[in-house]
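Protein record

Derive tokens from sequence
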Amino acid sequence: MALSQGAATPDEYFDEQWARGADPWEHGTRWYETRKYDLTVAALPRPRYRRSFEPGCGAGFLTRRLAHRSEDHLAMERHPVGVAATRERCADRSTVQVVEGRIPDDWPTGTFDLIVLSEVLYYLDGEDLEACLTKARRSLDAGGHLIAVHYRRDVSAHRWTGDEVHDRLVRLPGWTSLLCGTDVDFRLDVVQPC
């Protein structure tokens, strides 16, 4: 599926993927995913967070890992199959709330001391990408952390590459970069408000 210039990934793409089952991207079985999730959690600067937000949680594999680090973790997924998979995967984690929604329109109220943007930003068009980055900056507590991790290679279903969305993130005024890790397959950045 090739995207038209400047377009967001259409809903039909996600409907087709989730129609394949509760783990359509094979996040639970691929070494790339396991390694990426472990490195994402290991890169968090603090051992515990008060309130965290993870939009685009998919089937909840990273969500389950983040639940150990947050007193109140809000996971959001745009598709009901992903919501159900994450709820099931995290059923024994009382600190996890899973909701259906999409960014930027359903960005939650309140503030967070951790925001996790994992393989979600490159599906957005330019306007929604900027809106998400602005909302993330406004809803992050002073001293809080935003961690972003995205696949770096070209994918026809992605509007951007991982490097493109990360370059936009770290160039925004008001952020201090704490860590930038570049792997052959993914890029990981941790930033905090200045």
Remarks:
- Residues 126-139 form the longest helix (14 residues).
- The longest strand covers residues 140-151.
- Residues 11 and 79 are 9 Å apart (CA to CA).
- The chain has one domain: 11-193.
